[in-house]
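Usage

Read records sequentially. Each one opens with the input sequence:
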Amino acid sequence: MTAFPKPRIVISKCIGFDPCRYNGEIVHDKFVTRLEPHVDFVCVCPEVEIGLGTPRAPVRIVSSKDTFKLIQPSSGLDVSARMRRFSRDFFEGLKEVDGFILKNRSPSCGITDVKVYSGPEKGPVIGKTAGFFGGAVLEQFGDRAIEDEGRLKNLSIREHFLTRVFAFAGFRSLQQSQSMSALVRFHAENKLLLMAYNQTKMRELGRIVANADGKRIGAVLELYEKSFRTALHNPPRRASPINVLMHGLGYFKKELSAREKRHFLEMLEAYRQGRTPLSSAVSVLRSWVMRFQAEYLYRQTFFGPFPEELMALDDSGRGRT
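and closes with the structure output:
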């Protein structure tokens, strides 16, 4: 539960790495700073890459007939084709990637909340969409962990993002071994995590690992990767992790006092009601795993899916759900 391969994450360069926003500013983000030693960041500023420079007159997304255009109102410049071409070329040169952290509300990098205008200058806002680069990311890498820095201030969203990127990095490390025994071990160690996320996919992955058809290891890994990413795509419903934690509690029913059990059940209820993150109850159960040397549970990634220090609460400006 302590050794983590480094996820490879593409990040908007303005988030802590370069003052390349349109106004020449940089975005300071505590979570990204804390995350940096644990991951390999690939920094990119699409607007600078297509030659707009820093500082620069801002661009906006404009609705034009049946399509969107990326326009710089001050100059009337249409950089739509340039941005699409850059995105395509960037993706072609991108090696393995586990996730993305992109600048929210950016007409290039935003993923959900970018304003769409009716005209290049004084037209009103008529809707919201993804930015040109961010939308291409969603289309090309929809099975990866993709978030913006604003949403990552939400504890639950951050927890889900971290779980996914470190799980994906773990699988990439496994792929290099091209070993069936390593895959069997990987699946066993992730069993409770998969149970908490998607029990149907957990069983499907078990059948893939069993390999009743005798497929070559490359084919098995390809099938496993696709289902593994799907299994972790959506955050778990609260009932599923609670069931896993209750399952874990059963290992210690004779060792724990009535007061300890009651306290743990109260924590589960607080999580059920959205008053505390899942990691709080997981940390308590993990302490019992180590205290009572429950070897099977100790190997489960569910109890430590990512470095613990990454869930610090001091920079959490939004709620938990």
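Summary fields computed downstream for this record:
- The first helix runs from residue 30 to 35.
- The chain has two domains: 8-151, 154-321.
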